[in-house]
Amino acid sequence: MSVELYKAIIVGPPNVGKSSLVRRYQNDEFREAHTATIGADLSAASFDFPEGRVVLTIADIGGQESFTGLRNQFYQGANHLIMVYDVTIRSTFDRITDLHEALTEKICIQREHFLGGSLVANKSDMKDEAQVSPQEGQLLADILTLKFFETSAKTGMNVSELFHFAAAESQRLRHNR
Fold this sequence. Notes:
Strand order of the largest sheet: 2-3-1-4-5-6
CATH architecture: 3-Layer(aba) Sandwich
Largest sheet: 6 strands, mixed
Number of helices: 6
CATH topology: Rossmann fold
Number of strands: 6
Structural class: alpha/beta
Helix content: 25-40%
């Protein structure tokens, strides 16, 4: 059986739940206490598809501005971009467009091809506190040509689906080139 390696980067403003999404997927756990990611954390997940096994390296990039230079090293070779915002904090949603533009410019200039991606509305279990509607998220995802996911790292809602899509889309895009 063949094994294909891909890299997904998960990015977004600080405190939107990027690491919590990865932890929920990798260990099926959630921690209420928050610890900021310093620089980047790397992990890997394996997926079996009819075409063969896919190993997805997940680069969880810290959201603080002070890590911008370091983050650039992790962008190279990315196959899938996972952009996360917190539905309970509008300002995190408002930053997505500028972040997407800066990232796709850095990643795609080197490769001149379409980069698959996902827009993630995290903390979607907190509907009463939401400042961003699912319709706004879907509209932005459509504009940016991203797949839209409403997730909750706390409950696990759509977390597996998100990472499964990242692996499948990475594979699909490589085979369609």
